[in-house]
Write a structure and sequence with these properties.
Distance between the termini: 37 Å
Radius of gyration: 19 Å
Oligomer: single chain
Helix content: 25-40%
Structural class: alpha+beta
Number of helices: 8
Number of strands: 13
Strand content: 25-35%
CATH class of the largest domain: Alpha Beta
CATH architecture of the largest domain: 3-Layer(aba) Sandwich
Shape: globular
Bound molecules: coenzyme A
């Protein structure tokens, strides 16, 4: 094998682990199980750029059942940046993902602000900003917040359909059942009116998703999740158009620390952003 020849192919499991370490080195603080869950659900989503047999870059092209795609974890090894490797890998990933989706299916991504012009040149359109808020968890358990599976998977799965562009049951069940996660829901009039997940990350916890019908339900849910992880570092990613969400972040003492541009290729989904108080992840949608 020519040790300098570039190739692009699906990743081996050990390469996924390397990509996770690179993501941590970028300060993205991946959830402890995020990549393992995505790899179990969609092993073809992880793409390696190799020089010879050495991993020099990677990224994910997750397919939510062929109906909606998401690009994330776009990283070139730190010592090789600025030499157009990223351009090659990114365009090939987009082509590969489009082939994996139903005709006309949309693709989303949360990109760092500095790269927005590059993604726009590649055909993506800016939708809004997703802002990360961080702090230390403090909250009170709401007496009406119930844990999964007292709130059933069927309830959560059908509620989730209102806030995510495509069905994602196989992903969601693993997300809810990952080790160390807290999953809570609140019902109103016997119907689920909000649910949220706190999952352990390399540092502290992230809340995501947090979906709720009203800001009041969101506040009670976030407070209850915070109570479960009292005193831990916590992060919450909120779509900027959700003004009630931004106010809640301040109320819980969280401050803005980072952000991404949500961009779409093809049709942008019509999501109720006012009910999205926590994005599931910047990597998989
Ligand atoms: C982003 C990244 C994968 C690009 O790989 P690369 O091999 O350096 O990229 P290229 O040399 O092919 O350049 C690709 C484009 O990215 C732009 N770019 C790269 N890093 C940038 C930065 N920090 N700020 C602004 N633009 C940047 C380049 O200007 C270029 O755009 P252009 O074609 O319009 O000039 C690489 O820089 C990286 O791993 N960065 C850290 C992780 C990261 O931020 N990933 C993106 C998350 S959305």
């Amino acid at each position: 094998m020519d040790p300098t020849a570039l190739s692009i192919a699906t990743m081996r499991a050990d390469e996924v682990q390397t990509l996770e370490d690179w993501a941590a080195a970028e300060g993205w603080n991946p959830g402890l199980a995020d990549l393992a869950i995505a790899y179990a659900v969609d092993p073809d989503a992880f793409i390696a750029l190799r020089r010879g047999d050495e991993l020099v870059g990677g990224g994910s092209i997750f397919s939510h059942g062929g109906a909606f795609g998401f690009m994330g974890l776009f990283i070139i090894r730190a010592d090789l940046r600025g030499g157009k490797l990223g351009t090659t890998l990114w365009h090939q990933r987009l082509d590969m993902l489009r082939k994996r989706l139903a005709p006309g299916a949309g693709i989303g991504m949360d990109g760092v602000f500095a790269m927005v012009p590059f993604y726009e040149k590649g055909g993506f359109k800016f939708a809004h900003r997703d802002l990360r808020f961080e702090g230390i968890a403090h909250g009170q358990m709401d007496p009406d917040a119930h844990a999964y599976p007292d709130i059933s998977f069927a309830e959560i799965d059908s509620f989730d359909r209102c806030f995510f562009p495509a069905p994602r049951s196989t992903f969601l069940v693993r997300w809810l059942e990952q080790p160390g996660a807290h999953v809570l829901g609140i019902r109103q009039d016997d119907m689920l009116a909000g649910y949220g997940v706190a999952r352990p990350c390399r540092k502290g916890f992230k809340l995501g998703p947090v979906f709720a019908d009203t800001p009041d339900i969101a506040e009670r849910l976030i407070g209850s999740l915070m109570a479960k992880i009292e005193g831990e570092p916590v992060a919450l990613d909120i779509p900027e158009p959700n003004e009630a969400g931004l106010k809640l972040a301040a109320k819980f003492g969280l401050s803005e620390s980072f952000g991404c541009a949500r961009l779409y290729y093809g049709p942008a989904p019509d999501l109720p952003l006012n009910g999205i108080f926590g994005v599931t992840s910047f990597e998989f949608g």
